[in-house]
Structure formats: C-alpha cells, structure tokens
Amino acid sequence: YYEFRYLTVSSVRRVTVQSGGSVTIPCLYEDRHKDHVKYWCRGIDWRSCTTIVRTDSPQKKDDVSIRDDPDQRVFTVTMNNLKIENDDIYWCSVEISGDFDDGVSVNLSVSDGKMSGDSIGVQCRYGDRSSEMKWCKIGGSCVSGNSGRLDGRPVEIRDDKVNKVFSVTMWGLERKDTGWYWCNDGYQQIPVHITVNQPR
User: Which PANTHER family match (predicted)?
Assistant: First the structure.
C-alpha cells in the first residue's frame, strides 16, 4: 500500500489488542499542522480510505473518538469495545488544502482472546538517528535489550533492522497496568495508551 508523500506525521506502526479491549493511538505532527483538520480513516490505501472521525466533525462515532492537542502537537484516537472486525489498517491523517494530505498508517490487530493471559503487542518505527530501543511506562521504569520485566510483567523486544521497526510484547497484564507507555528509540518518544479491562 502507499505511504503518504511527506511523512510529517508519526505514530506506532502496529498495535495488538484483545477483543473487548480499548486503545488510544497517538498521532504526532509537526508545528506547521497545528491549525489543520486531523482525521482517522480506515483502509489499506490512503487514497480511498473511509474517514471515521475528524477533529472538526464528527469527533465521535460509535466507539471511536478523536481529540487534538495543538500545544503538544499530537492528536489521539481512542477506540473502545474492540471487535475482531475492527482489525485493519488505519491512518493518522492531516488535511492539507490544495495539496496531498499527510499522514502515516497504523496496523490495528484485534486478537480473539485465545492467547494465554492478557497481552499487548506494539510495533514502533525508528529512524536513522535512533540508538537504543526501550519500552517504558510513563512515570515508571524501562525495558531495553531483548527482554526484561516492567512492573513485574514479562516484556520481549524484537528489532527488525530491515524494516526499522522494533516489536514489543508484554504479558500477564491486569487492570492496574492500564496507562501510558513509551516507545523510546533514543531519539523519538511515541506514547501509547493501553487499557486493560477486568476479566469477565
């Protein structure tokens, strides 16, 4: 599929969430986009993707909502009550009048819940200036290298140097693990909000 022509928007590459869960995706953008409309759309090709929510209207549709924070140059998309049919490619997008819109794809994977224990998977992009890959909880500790523990939870990190992506898997999650985490590549920090629901 096609990427946008100018990559002035960034986010995680992939997030894996169990069915019934929720996730908040951060979409970071450059200062020049502060006053532009942002939107979240679905589809493998950005030229024909279906817009779900926008920062002008609608800001909420069913279980999906969008919020822009121009001071922090980030807009966030929250998806609740995720179902298997929500598994798809989505786009963090910025509307640019008179030119191509800008944005980046996010692959949302929804598990059917048959994995052992509650787990989360995130793929984080990194660039040429990146150094050490870390997965951190905001206000807490970090895990680097191939594996470790974060607040007692096992974490595995895999580095795909060809595609410049590192994958993080975290197991044994409980409701108290809900919160903000960072993909940290030594140059850029991208936040991800993880919501862990109570077991049924």
Answer: CMRF35-LIKE MOLECULE 8, POLYMERIC-IMMUNOGLOBULIN RECEPTOR
Taking residue 127's Cβ as centre, other Cβ atoms within 10 Å add up to 11
Model pLDDT, residue 142:
92
Alpha-carbon span 133 to 123, nearest angstrom: 12
Structure tokens at 149: 């523990």
Q: Which CATH number belongs to the domain containing residue 133 in this structure?
A: 2.60.40.10
Other CB atoms within 10 Å distance of the CB of residue 50: 9
**In a shared domain, residues 42 and 90:** yes
Q: Per residue, what are the HEC states of 14-39?
A: EEEEECCCEEEEEEEECHHHCCCCEE
Q: What is the pLDDT of residues 135-179, one digit of tens each?
A: 998 778 999 989 999 989 999 999 888 888 888 999 888 888 888
Q: How far is CA 86 from CA 20, 107, 109, 157, in A?
A: 11, 10, 8, 25
Query: Are residues 171 and 86 both part of a single domain?
Result: no
| pLDDT at residue number 182 | 85
Asked if the model's pLDDT at residue 115 lies above 70, the reply is no
> Could you give the number of structural domains in the chain?
2
Statement: residue 116 has pLDDT above 60: no
Residue 95, classified by CB atoms within 10 Å of its CB into exposed (0-12), middle (13-18) or buried (19+), is middle
Q: Answer for the pair 30, 73: CB distance below 8 angstroms, yes or no.
A: yes
Domain boundary, last residue among 49, 82, 112: 112
